[in-house]
Amino acid sequence: MGTQVGNGLDVTVKYIDDKTGNVASAKWNKLDKATQDQIRGGGRILSVIVPAGTAGKIVKGIKEAKALKNKTVSKSVNTKIANSGYVNPPYNLSKPIVDFTANGKDKYVRVFTKGETKHAGRWMMKDSDIKGLTPKEIQDKFALPYLPDHVVDVKPPKGIKMRTGVAKENFNGNGGGTQYELLENININVFNNSRPL
Predict the structure, then answer these.
(1) Average per-residue pLDDT in the chain?
(2) Nearest to 121 by CA among 164, 87, 151, 147
C-alpha cells in the first residue's frame, strides 16, 4: 500500500499507535523508522499540525496523511477475519489487510466464469495485475475456485466500504495477488463492459 509521508517535512502527527492502541503525537522527523512504517502501513493518522508559513512546502504530506485517515490498522482487520469463521481465510493474514472507503474514481476489474460465478460480486483486482496473464495464471495468482473466462469493469461509488490485502493460497492456487473486496452491496449496473478474457 506504501503511502509515503515525506521524511523531510516538519509536521506533527497525531496517530493511533499500532502496538498500544493509544493515541500518540510526535514530530514526524523525530519518529523512528519502524513507527513511520507502521503509520504509513495503516496506522490511523488523526491529525497533522503544520508550522506557520510552511503550508506550501507540505501540501503533499497533508494529502498523503489525509488519504490514510480512513484506513483501519491492519492488525485489527487480521484479527476480525481470523475470528470470522472462515475455514480457509481469503487473505494472507501475515500481510497487511486494510479497510478503506472508495473515492469514486478508482477502477477495478472482476473476473468470472460463465455458468459458475456471476459478473457482479464482491471480489476484484486492478486491471494492471492481470494484464498479460493467461486465465490459468490469473486463477493461480488470486486463488480462484474456477478458471475465469470473462472480465468486467468495476468503478465502486464514492463512500463504499472496501478492503484490500494479499490473496491467500486456496483452491490449489498459490495466491499472492492484491485483491479488493466490496464490504457493501452496490448497484449491479456498476459492473459493466463484460468481455471474454
Answers:
(1) 77
(2) 151
42 Cα distance to chain centroid:
10
DSSP-based three-state secondary structure for 136: helix
d(CA 164, CA 179): 6
Q: Which three cell numbers stand for residue 178?
A: 492484491
When comparing pLDDT for 39 and 50, which is higher?
A: 39
- In our burial notation (b when 16+ CB lie closer than 10 A, e otherwise), range 62-84 reads eebbeebeebbbbbebbeebeee
Contacts of 44 (CB under 8 A, 6+ apart): 15, 16, 68, 69, 71, 72, 73
Q: Grid cell 460480486 — which residue?
A: 121
- How far apart are the C-alpha atoms of 176 and 141, rounded to whole Å? 6
* Cα 110 from chain centre: 15
In this structure, are residues 4 and 61 in contact, taking their beta carbons and an 8 Å threshold? no
pTM of the full predicted structure?
A: 0.62
DSSP state of 168: P
